[in-house]
Amino acid sequence: KLAFEQYLQYLSTISDSSYVIFRLPNVYGPRQRPDLEGGVIAIFDNLIKNNKTVNFFGDGSQTRDWVHVSDIILAFYKAMKLEKHFHLFSLGSGEQTSLSKLYKYMLEIQAYTKEPNFLDERSGDIKHMVMTNKKARKFLDWVPKVKLREGLMQLSDKD
Fold it and tell me: 159 pLDDT exceeds 60?
């Protein structure tokens, strides 16, 4: 990925082409499929709505940066108005939320009472992940507006 980003940056200097690259956090929102990798919220939501047990791989302290799809779409839209050039933006919230806290929010919102099943950590899983949005704030006047708990409540409203 990095090599391709660098190649696009080089192309932008020798041609009239312009490129915008987005580095995305964990994106979630309505109608997200639970059978795709990385959709922790969709997976948990599907299991909870079907009254099944949620599995944690690890102790639940691992953290992620979740941003609602509507905020991501807004950043894409704003980027269409940029001057031609090479731009690379991280679209994180800047907030780390543990799986345990995410699960707690979902329990409260959906009145679900089952405890998660704790399994061994999976090899290669990232323990903590958070992304900045400093450059997107400066050049796109963008920050995510949908707070995680609010976005989770919207998932519940869609059914």
Answer: no
